[in-house]
Amino acid sequence: MSGTYTDLQVWQAAMDLAEEIYRITKTFPKEETYSLTVQLRRAAVSVPSNIAEGKGRSSDKELAQFLCHSRGSLFEIETQINLSRRLGYLDAQQTIAVLHKTARVGQLLNGLLRAFRPPSAA
Fold first, then answer.
1. Which range is most confident: 16-20, 61-65, 115-119?
2. What would the pLDDT profile of 61-102 be if each residue is shown by its tens digit?
């Protein structure tokens, strides 16, 4: 796969998601500063970071492994966003908007991962 990680649509979408997570967590209560806010931000940073790290590795197998790490972090974000909604830190509209972005990143990750799977025997 040619190009750099910044050329990847999935990396660009993951960066948009991370930026949105930083924006919404600014409104979280101060008592969440060292708990849910940090957890969400770390997971959000992890998604594009793992894509970039995987792209810098020497094999497609390693890239696929790091894409799976990104997907795991994406699931963390979805869980933490749902918890944030349940705790009243996000309204329904904010929750839907962020989950829409996570779904888009997930679709792109899954599509890229499919490119590394061996073709199934017919």
1. 16-20
2. 999 999 999 999 999 999 999 999 999 999 999 999 999 999
**CB neighbour class for 30 (10 Å; exposed up to 12, middle 13-18, buried from 19):** exposed
Amino acid at position 47, single letter: V
Which DSSP string do the residues of 53-90 spell out, in sequence order? HHHTSSSHHHHHHHHHHHHHHHHHHHHHHHHHHHTTSS
5-114 homologous superfamily: 23S rRNA-intervening sequence (1.20.1440.60)
Distance (Å, rounded) from C-alpha 15 to C-alpha 82? 20
* Residues comprising the chain, all counted: 122
Nearest to 60 by CA among 2, 122, 105, 103: 2
| Nearest Cα residue to 108 out of 40, 41, 47 | 47
Neighbours of 74 (CB within 10 A): 23
